Amino acid sequence: MILRFSIFDYFRPNSHTTDYGKSMLWFVKFLLEAIFIWPDTERPELLIISCIIIWLAGIFSWWCVFSYIIVNIEDFNKAVYGMCLLSIPTMIVMKMPFVLFKFKALKNLLKQIETEFWPYDVVDSETKKELKEVYSISIGFMFFCFFIVQIYHGATLVIPVFLEERVLPLPCSLPFEWTDGIPYALIYIVHFICLELGITFGVLGLDILILCLCICTSNQYRILRKCFLIYNTVDMRETNDLLRTITKRSMDNYSLEKEYLVRLIDHHNLLLRFTTNLNEVLSPLELGQLVISIMALCLGTYVLSMEELSTFHRTFAFIYLIGFNLQLVIDCTVGAEIYHQATFLPHCVFHSNWMSLEDTNLKKDILFVLQSSQRFPQLMAYNLYSMDMVTFLKIQKFTLSVYTLLSNMSAIKQNVT
């Protein structure tokens, strides 16, 4: 009961976001607050300290794996294996500075969702059911991602305890004796911070936060479309009365049809500004994540095909690939969803009951709105590439090409030796 109460009472009572959206954001809040890196925290000093500690753990873990690669540079398979696992601490090294420097911007985005996004109460029961299904699927996907990551990193952290040989969760080669006593325990703790706190909560939590921001945005387009469809109908007055309690703009001198239209236009402009700000905030993260994901998928595919790999380690390699594919799927799916929902808006504007308006000026305004509604937002990184399923498929094709190249290189090296 305490958990359920926390879910539906996360935002202040005067919040205008949906209850389903609260559930999504509560789960991310739980993940990020677990290690004090929730961007909407009232104690940013804890966020700064946590990010620095996790980032330093990521730097040290990265150095451990990189040293392993240098030591085994002559062994092609071991070098590739090390480069594959190097992507894990690299995610920490990239994402923690992002959280540190962008937490104020992320906080502003969350505050905008809390105070300015429309609730599901403004739409009909059928649309409410549709929105609830979207949120339910999203929450289920969050838990699935969390479960997959926990399996991988949980087993990676626990297995070394039961082995006779002193090994670490990540491959390691250091210029000093680290397998005995205190050095081994300290390095193990650093790897634990990197994997369990950094990856499981920090990196995954940030990925799910992006999922929440984008799903909330795409669902606002769903709500806006339904509100346009009831324009100049008997349902418009009731919806407009509800919107009056939400929006702060006073329009006492407007007719009902004009007032309602202005509110719709204002909300559309709000969504366009929000997606622009979202792109500005996420661009460095999306660009870095694309590079790391490509490296992880290319090398991970080759590692999965190694003949000397045991069934146990092959299963781990498979889970590794699933994890990085899910990370890529999150960005590409929600980016495509925002664009997809926005493309339906002109259709809804045109098929509203605007032609029966008596005010000629309002009819002209609708034509301008129809033109403006054809501005379709996209989730992009510095305008270099768009996050959609086309990009996802291109990455999969590139992964297969690199896998073929690595396989040929391994075969040539074996023939030479």
UniProtKB/TrEMBL annotation:
It comes from the Eukaryota. It is found in: Cell membrane. Keywords: Cell membrane, Membrane, Olfaction, Receptor, Sensory transduction, Transducer, Transmembrane, Transmembrane helix. Signal peptide: none annotated. InterPro entries: 7tm6_olfct_rcpt. The keyword Transmembrane helix applies. The keyword Cell inner membrane does not apply. GO terms for biological process: signal transduction. Its main location: membrane. GO terms for molecular function: odorant binding; olfactory receptor activity. The chain crosses the membrane at residues 46-73, 79-101, 134-163, 183-216. It is a multi-pass membrane protein. GO terms for cellular component: plasma membrane. Belongs to the insect chemoreceptor superfamily. Heteromeric odorant receptor channel (TC 1.A.69) family. This is Odorant receptor. The lineage of its organism: Eukaryota, Metazoa, Ecdysozoa, Arthropoda, Hexapoda.
